[in-house]
Amino acid sequence: MDGEHLDWPFFDAPHREFATKLAAWADEHIRVDHTAGVDDSCRALVRELGAAGWLRYAVAGTAFGGARDAIDTRAICLARETLAWHDALADFAFAMQGLGSGAIGLAGTDEQKRRYLPGVASGTAIAAFALSEIDAGSDAAALTCTARADGDEFVLDGEKTWISNGGIADFYVVFARTGEAPGARGISAFVVDADTPGLDVAERIDVISPHPLARLRFEGCRVPAARLLGEPGTGFRLAMRTLDVYRTSVAAAALGFARRALDEAMARATSRIMFGGRLADLQLTQAELARMATTIDAAALLTYRAAWQRDRGRTVTREAAMAKMAATEGAQRVIDAAVQLWGGLGVVSGQPVERLYRDIRALRIYEGATEVQQLIIARELLRSRNSARPAISGQPQ
Fold it and tell me: Residue 253: enclosing H or E segment and its boundaries?
């Protein structure tokens, strides 16, 4: 990564220093053995990121181990972009510590924060975010896992699936239906320790870009009422607030993948000899490299605009959706082009561009599929238009 974008006005001096130091550290320390077990590799990365102090940026509250009192979205994005350039699992390890504990930072009591956040920041505890179900992915408000009040406890029953860090997490932030109102208004959030009786890892899930993933089962799982996050019935809103922070950072991870793909494509194009010259001398190659670079810069501008606006206290629902859509879809195109430029070697297992080809695919789906982002963008555009135009008698509004 050349870091030229750090000169953009979205960043302050501390951001530039942070990104430069993290890049230097990652160059020296990120060495993921992809032949080893993914669970052990992920645990090791969490410990290493925590020991080096980088996970502190994924936690809000200096009193609880965080680097700042509020999450710095630009720092989160710079971290994910940098780590993703080096290795997808390193990015995953960092991001899930933030996503998994984010709801605690936003709505937890001081006791809850003291209990969970310092371990997340130090890398001695692994966090997970348990929202999705088999029929409640993009339509997360359709979840059916229940939490029934019983004295000073809640009893959880149901299943969660596609849960990142499932099987290795020390605790899960679980969203369940408590029934205060229909739909999204009847969902609450709980912190559930991984060793709680009635919580089982029902299935480990293997995917094309390996990382810890599981289906969880809750059967009569008793959780103290003190583990309720925020007020009853506010869990769905809390989930969306958490995702609002990390949706922009998904775009940043896609940028890291895309920048690595362009670097690999450039290296191949300038060293591969064919037709009496270099691959890079062919006009078709030059045109492709130009498209790749332009796609990356356009996505980066959208990503860091959203991060900058959020750090200024702006609501960035539309901007974050634009960033995620543009960056993930653009990265898919850039990586596909890199594979094509590598030719036959591009599809050999273990080559960097082959891993990137597998790594990018899920980003177009999780934390809101591209189609959902399109709906969000259109909804926000229409809402803005309808609120701005004056009402005309007899005209539909």
Answer: helix 235-271
Q: What is the pLDDT of residues 122-153, one digit of tens each?
A: 999 999 999 999 998 888 889 999 999 999 99
Contact (CB, 8 A) for 174 and 236? no
Structure tokens at 134: 């088999």
141-189 confidence digits (pLDDT tens): 899 999 999 999 999 999 999 999 999 999 999 999 999 998 899 999 9
What is the gyration radius of the CA atoms in the chain, in angstroms? 22
CA-to-CA dists, residue 396 to 81, 219, 387, angstroms = 45, 50, 13
Tracing tokens 């859509």 back to the chain, one arrives at 325
Q: Does 1 score more than 70 pLDDT?
A: no
Burial 287-301 (b: 16+ CB within 10 A, else e): ebbeebbebbeebbe
Q: Cα–Cα distance between 397 and 394 in angstroms, integer?
A: 9
Closest CA to 113 of 199, 224, 230, 198: 230
Stated pTM of the model: 0.94
Q: Tell me the CA distances in angstroms from 338 to 48, 109, 294, 325, one per residue in order.
A: 31, 48, 14, 20
- Comparing C-alpha atoms, which of 112, 84, 103, 219 is closest to residue 160? 219
Tens of pLDDT along 232-267?
Answer: 999 999 999 998 888 899 999 999 999 999 999 999
User: Would you say 244 and 307 are in contact if contact means Cβ atoms under 8 Å apart?
Assistant: no
Active site residues: 367
Distance CA 198, CA 217 (A): 8
Nearest to 329 by CA among 389, 274, 258: 258
- Looking at residue 152, the DSSP 8-state letter turns out to be T
How buried is 310 (Cβ within 10 angstroms: 0-12 exposed, 13-18 middle, 19+ buried)? buried
Q: Parallel, antiparallel, or unpaired: how do β-strands 127-130 and 171-177 relate?
A: parallel
**Cα end-to-end span (Å), the chain:** 49
Alpha-carbon span 153 to 155, nearest angstrom: 7
Which token pair is 205? 């899930």
Could you give the 3-state DSSP secondary structure of residue 256?
helix
DSSP string of 330-380?
A: HHHHHHHHHHHHHGGGGGSTT-HHHHHHHHHHGGGTTTS-HHHHHHHHHHH
